[in-house]
Design brief:
- By secondary structure, the chain is α/β, with parallel strands linked by helices.
- The chain is built from 14 helices and 17 strands.
- It has helices at 13-24, 26-33, 64-68, 86-95, 105-122, 138-145, 160-172, 176-185, 194-197, 200-214, 233-241, 303-319, 366-376, 407-418, and strands at residues 4-9, 37-43, 59-61, 75-78, 99-102, 126-127, 151-157, 224-225, 244-255, 258-269, 281-288, 292-299, 351-361, 381-386, 395-402, 405-406, 423-432.
- The strands form 2 sheets. Strands 7, 8, 9, 10, 11, 12, 13, 14, 15, 16 and 17 form an 11-stranded mixed sheet that branches. A 6-stranded parallel sheet has the order 3-2-1-4-5-6, with helices on both faces.
- Helix 2 runs parallel beside helix 12 and helix 5 (105-122) runs parallel beside helix 10.
- 47% of the residues are buried.
């Protein structure tokens, strides 16, 4: 059979990795796909010199739309990132009847609904395995491998930068700002690290995982997002003393009254496997009613790990090019006409246990006053510890673990505690998830 002609948009880190993997494993990939997959056109303003020998015979230009509109190209691989012009390029490719492979989680999370609708109408595929957790095949697992299950919840470490920072804070007792600077120097974090440390990158990925798990439209705007910038090395140490690790989790859970979609720092029991995922690695824990808990672990970013997922999508698309479009695996795991209108729960309705750190004066009655406020809001305390004050400070840290409580009750209690004259600064609240099977 004649080779499949691929147009590659972007020859940066992932684009270069895709060229390398396709070239190095060409024969094996062709055996799996049933025909050769060949990059014939590419759009890039620049690329690494070492790619030059691998790009012999590839038409390279700086106009991505020229590649998208080229009639010889059958599959477009979008590796530019961001919203613009990525959305316009993908929609034009679909309009031209071309299949699309993308690693762009922001694009799928924000515009996936319209992209998939257009693709369905045109009878083409949009594959996006590389958009979540790099080389870990979590999308295929949710969409196909776990198709027999009702998914109960998904919890994932899906941003390597945040996980590296929290790991360093735990292992070496370092401060957040210091580790963030190192992460930037090592290339793990961007010069502007907002998307990573404030949880936006993870929220894009969680939005996709939630849709795949529960058969709901993509709804990034309803995902609760909280970053790790307020976590201190003291919080990390106190959590460890209590038998927990702090991880920046994306959590999607199906409850009786809706779907939870939330990204925030989370205490996890230290014995859980996912609590021991360190450095820049990613892991996703999925609980299905039939299979129980399953864990997917690996490199969540990087040139060739992400390229692994991109090329796997190319193989999938190639295999199904002759398939009736109505009988392909649906983009969001469920048939488009059967997506659910289950509501996304507002964060105030979510119930979790909590870790609280309060700085209060060491005076009689203070602990009783704080406990009284929690009690009035129906919040029971599981454990409480009084820590030594920092040198030169009058207030001392009180660390508490609470039982499960509705978020709105905790918000009200925290506001009242912060208003006490004996309390200094903001209350630190970190939610707790047992993640038990």
């Amino acid at each position: 059979m004649k080779p499949i002609h691929v147009g590659l948009l972007g020859l940066g880190t992932v684009g270069g990795g895709t060229v390398n993997v396709l070239s190095r494993n060409a024969a094996e990939i062709a055996r799996r796909a049933g025909r050769e997959i060949r990059i014939t056109h590419a759009a890039a303003r620049a690329y690494a010199p070492e790619l030059e020998p691998l790009l012999q015979g590839v038409e390279i230009c700086d106009d991505a739309f020229a590649v998208v509109n080229n009639p010889e190209v059958e599959i477009i691989v979008e590796l530019i990132g961001g919203y613009t012009p990525a959305l316009e390029l993908v929609m034009q490719a679909i309009a031209n009847g071309k299949h699309v492979v993308t690693a762009n989680k922001a694009l799928i999370a924000m515009h996936g609904n319209e992209i998939f609708q257009a693709a369905q109408g045109r009878g083409v595929m949009v594959a996006f395995e590389a958009a979540v957790a790099g080389g870990i095949p979590i999308i295929k697992a949710l969409r196909e491998g776990l198709a027999a299950n009702q998914i109960e919840w998904v919890a994932g470490i899906i941003n390597g930068t945040g996980n590296f920072i929290l790991t360093e804070m735990l292992d070496k007792g370092r401060d957040f700002a210091e580790v963030l600077s190192e992460a930037q120097a090592l290339g793990y974090a961007e010069a502007n690290p907002t998307f990573d440390v404030e949880g936006i990158d993870a929220a894009h990925k969680l939005t996709i995982l939630g849709s795949l798990a529960f058969g709901i439209p993509l709804q990034f705007d309803k995902t609760y997002v909280e970053g790790i910038t307020r976590i201190t090395r003291q919080d990390v140490a106190y959590a460890e003393q209590l038998g927990y690790r702090i991880k920046h989790l994306g959590i999607a859970r199906k409850e009786a009254n809706g779907i939870e979609l939330r990204v925030h720092p989370t205490l996890i029991p230290r014995k859980r496997l996912i609590a021991n995922v360190n450095g820049v690695m990613n892991a996703v824990l999925v609980k299905g009613d039939a299979v129980g808990p399953t864990l997917y672990y690996g490199a969540g970013a990087g040139s060739e790990p992400t390229a692994s997922a991109v090329v796997a999508d190319l193989v999938d698309v190639t295999r199904t090019l002759t398939t009736d479009p109505n009988n392909r695996v649906p983009h969001l795991a469920f048939q488009p006409s059967h997506l659910s209108n289950l509501r996304i729960m507002p964060m105030e309705e979510v119930q979790t246990a909590c870790y609280l750190r309060v700085h209060a004066l060491d005076e009689p009655g203070v602990m009783a006053e704080i406990a009284g406020i929690l009690g009035r809001h129906g919040i029971s305390i599981e454990a409480i510890q009084q820590k030594e004050p920092a040198e030169g400070e009058e207030s001392l840290p009180l660390v508490m673990l609470t039982h499960r409580v509705e978020e709105r009750c905790m918000n009200q209690a925290i506001a009242e505690i912060e208003a006490l004259e004996c309390v200094s600064g903001a209350v630190m609240r970190i939610r707790l998830e047992p993640l038990s099977g």
